[in-house]
């Protein structure tokens, strides 16, 4: 059972703001593909900025509520961080369905039965 579904054509934005004043410095928009993945080309160096991937909107009317805590993910957009690649990855972002999948009650019951 997989309670997660990839969402195609969701709008996502990478936005950066200054560390000192939180003033917006730039933003770049993109959309997710069939796998729920997005690739956004970001220009310039942002070593002194706080940059985040942010959910903007869902194309699915039954899945439009942005999950609190999954609405944004910080991304470090600088070459001055020891990483050899220019590719950066953000944590998963997410929307919540209006109506849960039919198997969700069964899945939640399984988690309740597990001793931690």
From TrEMBL:
Pfam families hit by this protein: Pollen_Ole_e_1
InterPro entries, per the entry: Pollen_Ole_e1_allergen
Keyword entries, A-Z: Disulfide bond
Domain of life per record: Eukaryota
Similarity comment: family membership: Belongs to the Ole e I family.
PANTHER family: ALLERGEN-LIKE PROTEIN BRSN20, PROTEIN DOWNSTREAM OF FLC-RELATED
Name assigned to this protein: Uncharacterized protein
Lineage, highest ranks first: Eukaryota, Viridiplantae, Streptophyta, Embryophyta, Tracheophyta
